[in-house]
Amino acid sequence: PTPPSDDTYTASAFWNKVRTFFEEHNPGNVKSTTDIVKKYWGKDEELMRALYKKYEVPFRRAGTVAESKGAYYRAVLQEVYAGNEEKISKIPSILQKYEGQEGTLVERLGQTYPSMGKV
Predict the structure, then answer these.
(1) Alpha carbon of 20 to those of 14, 63, 67, 86: distances in Å?
(2) Which residue ranges in the chain fall short of pLDDT 70?
(3) Is residue 4 a contact partner of residue 41, using CB atoms and an 8 Å limit?
(4) Distance separating alpha carbons of residues 61 and 75, to the nearest angstrom
(5) What is the reported pTM?
């Protein structure tokens, strides 16, 4: 198969996520965004987890501005459950269950998903 064009890469949500991450944590790499996205095309989660770990950034969805505590934890859950539509559909009930007990939620996520890093 023919690889996607540069326009396909730069129009992707993955490209935007990587660029936003570099704008925040390593502006010198912004110019390399397209090359990095090409290298990791189809491996979005692998790259983002590696970047969070390398730059010691708390694990969260890149580019998400947490307007509220609920939005922040929703973004964390979306990232942790990426690709699992059943769990993603349960996020509102999980947030409701742990409202006011977000520390417990994070602790349990860390036990279940140790690779998620610091939140």
Answers:
(1) 10, 6, 17, 28
(2) 1-11, 59-71, 115-119
(3) yes
(4) 6
(5) 0.46
